[in-house]
Write a structure and sequence with these properties.
alpha+beta; 144 residues
Length: 144
């Protein structure tokens, strides 16, 4: 699933991945623009529905960012490109995938692989660890 790969290579939050449309993937360079998040929120008590899906700005101003994409991921995205207003995960305009479903599919894949205790958010920590290792290797090389 492209959402899992995106998180593994970029550290995006599940809601950010769900809100991505194809117009956020640059046509000219391997850059992904992140400026929205999708989440299901509880509604006020007077509503017939208990929850609603909201697409809004990310958690903080620093969460609005341009993310460089690895060449392999950029090529994969370009090969599967859809119309610009389509959501990245569904390929359809006006039809998004909810974070719960992404997380559920991720858990299902892990169970198929014999991994019982992990959640989607753990991928962000994986990316953080990779960055820290990379930085420490650069520091070590520079000190030599």
């Amino acid at each position: 699933m492209i959402g899992i790969l995106l998180c593994m290579y970029t550290g995006l939050r599940v809601g950010e991945i769900c809100a991505l449309t194809w117009k956020k993937v640059s046509l000219d360079e391997p850059i992904l623009q992140v400026d929205e998040t999708l989440q299901r929120l509880q509604q006020a008590n007077d509503s017939d529905k208990k929850t609603k899906v909201v697409i809004s700005s990310p958690k903080s101003d620093s969460s609005i960012r341009a993310i460089p994409l690895p060449d392999e991921i950029y090529k994969l995205l370009q090969q599967n490109r859809k119309q610009s207003d389509a959501y990245l995960l569904t390929g359809l305009p006006n039809r998004y995938m909810e974070p719960r479903l992404v997380q559920s599919r991720f858990k299902s894949i892990l169970l198929d692989l014999g991994i019982k205790h992990a959640n989607f958010h753990a991928l962000r920590h994986y990316v953080e660890c990779l960055i820290m290792v990379s930085l420490s290797q650069k520091t070590s090389i520079q000190a030599s």
